[in-house]
Amino acid sequence: MIDVIVSPLNYAFMVRGLLAALMVGVVCATVGTYVVLRGMAFFGDALAHSILPGIAVGYLVGGGAQASLFWWGLVTAVVASIGIGTISRGAKIREDTAIGIVFAGMFATGIALISTVRSYTVDLTHFLFGDILGVSTADLRLILIFGALIIAAVILFYKEFLVLSFDPLLADTLRLPSRLLEYLLLTLIAVAIVVSLQTVGVALMVAMLVTPAAAAYLLTRRLPVMMLLAALIASLSGLIGLYISYYASVASGAAIVLTCTFFFALAWMLRTLQRAL
Amino acid sequence: MTILENLRKRPFSRPAEHEPDRPVLEVSHLNVRYDHVTALEDVSFQLERGERVAVVGPNGAGKSTLFKVIAGVLQPSSGEVNISGHVPGGHICIAYLPQRSNVDWTFPVSVADVVMMGRIGKLGVFRWPKSSDWNYVHQCLEDVGLQPLAKRQISELSGGQQQRMFIARALAQEAEVMLMDEPLSGLDVHSQEDIYTILGELHRRSVTVMVATHDLDQAATHFDRVMLLNHRLLGFGQPGEVFTTERLVTAYGGHLRLVENGESGLLALGDTCCDEGEEP
Fold first, then answer.
1. In chain A, what residues touch B95 (CB-CB under 8 Å)?
2. Which among B94, B166, B176 is positioned nearest to A174, based on CA atoms?
3. What's the structural domain count of chain A?
């Protein structure tokens, strides 16, 4: 049994992948708590997909350097979230429609860009579904730094984000800078998505944001506990998923997300049982 | 280090000073238009400190709009609101109590957590509530009789308890003006009595309260003055002067049931309209 756990650790790429899965799990689940409570799942999914053109341009410009991909991804995510806000306000259409328009348009741009270069076909699947075993030491450092910044911001602005999410009118009457805090939260979600890109890819990103937080939501009625539980479920799913991927030769992103889904189903069953008793 | 300390002590905004010789609330020639729809038209009135005022009018009459302009979260198209000598946007002493149907009751917070939200205007940036803040919160819960339920998740409360929790939050905010949007609708008689008892206590503490309500009969009996609103201010004063048949028909059109009360000569009235919310 111990050998089952220890033997993959002989490979440096597995150790790096496991560390990445742990950190990404904690960061995504913490931010994801607000995504779930504010009903922003579609927004999160769209934001992840909207990053693709940025990644493609970053790849063309930087010749595959991860740091350049990161910054291009981040800028694209911020542009997408501002674009969604501008279109839904300016054109007076529902926000989810605006999200759909921006998300599909940007995703198509990304695919178009990537398709112009034939050798990209392999890399495209990496962007879409992640390549956690390709995580380098430099990537780990980026995930650590930006992940720590996100967690710090969530802790420092805890009471402000809480009020903004529960009762935006109260935030206004207390004269909190609501618009600024709103943009800060969107930026935190964008950064979380960009640092997690290599772990699960854009297509499955929304699961990392939503599924662990939703499972935690079913198990507790206190926000700090929900955040901790979500982080625990997500990082545990990352570890278990990666081991499943190693032994069963399943794509790592899919294995991690399916483990999250399993935990959600478990949480649902637990709650149903609890209610029945 | 001192710069950081100063930053931490500072709330996001410095509240405006109160000028005691000015009325607590002065509204003059207020107009609010959404696109091409007029929500409020030339509304002017003044409130004394500690007054309890019922605001009645049909759905979509602009009651919520009026409250949001007074709270300083909605900018009027023209006209002025003045709270103790300053525009509302400078104050943190105005509490808006939301309609219960507009609240996400499954949100993972306890009753005490919600009441603490009222305190954060007084806390600085990056500051966590201290034990003195929690003591204040528990005192506010005590004041509305919810102390035993402090640790409950908010979905476990009854309608009346939910309303009292929001009053406790407004107390924690140290609000001097409280705007309550339909606090009584959907409550049983006993819960309504609890709210009226608390309104009496607020009156003794010189808190000025405006309550939007559909119940004309209750408005006539439990408040110092009543305000009849349908986009325009149709009447403001003693219930006997304001609730005349002529004015009520102007306000409600056909949606009103008038019943003559023989003993007192007053009209016992019921708004036949639903208790649902109105426009944002």
1. 173
2. B94
3. 1
